Amino acid sequence: MKPEELILVLGMAAVTFGVRYPVLALVGKIQLPPALVKALRYVPPTVLTAIIVPEVLFPGGNLRLSLTSPYIIGAIASILIAWRTKNLLLTIILGMGIFFVAAWQFGL
Prior knowledge:
Elements: H1 3-27, H2 34-40, H3 43-57, H4 70-85, H5 88-105
């Protein structure tokens, strides 16, 4: 690793730590309003949706709305499995398995 890369990584770590630590330190010492705590519960699913939806609908950068798209088949299967079982590990394993079978079936 070049010295410039090490400095860059350490700088990014310092900025990330500097921005996040004070908030985490304060949260442990003050009582957050119930409305804020309730709203924070929606952050992980919202971020995950923002990451996954573009990959499902735009694989390779192109819009692909087709029932032969392994991405859409895997996403729909994962949604149904998660809704039915409420089991994250099972959803990931079966969803990926269904995606790979569909990708193999449709020649992706």
